[in-house]
């Protein structure tokens, strides 16, 4: 019986190869175009292993606007509390994206999600309550960030964890989050 099922799997694998596409077998699980064909508890998509570095890298960009402002202007135009929240979010995000496959169902994932929301709400509240002029670029970035985080969450809920769609949507959300920070700082520099 086990021999027959392996034989059918091999036929199926050859059929995929005949189409010119690639497949990956990990823990006797067949992946085709990053879709799990045979479910398993432990999975790792070979095709996306280098893509997994992107969210780690984009998480590290959260601090770049603060470093830029402190280096070029030698002061911080926003309360230090905002920078502290972003520093903590950066650390938690880096800890999570260091190994997202094994951290998927851990507390670090939950803490990352909670502090991401706190960071976003802090930046939004600050722009609503503490700026005199409407910051168009900030709000443009907020809308795009929310769209990409929503897409990322959708792919996560659909079981497409760490697929290229999930990773890229999350990376774009990180990039827009960094741009939100940048445009908040830039806007405050021009109002001083």
Key traits:
mainly alpha; globular; 192 residues; three-stranded antiparallel sheet; disordered N terminus
| Strand percentage | 5-15%
C-alpha-based Rg, rounded: 21 Å
The order of strands across the largest sheet is 1-2-3
Helix count equals 7
Element pattern in H and E: HEEEHHHHHH
Distance between the termini: 75 Å
Q: Largest beta sheet, briefly?
A: 3 strands, antiparallel
Shape: globular
| Poorly predicted regions | 1-46
- Determine the mean pLDDT: 79
Helix vs. strand class: mainly alpha
What's the total count of β strands?
A: 3
Share of residues in helices = 55-70%
Brief summary of the model shown:
With 192 residues, the chain is mostly helical. It has seven helices and three strands, in the order H-E-E-E-H-H-H-H-H-H. Helices cover 66% and strands 5% of the residues.
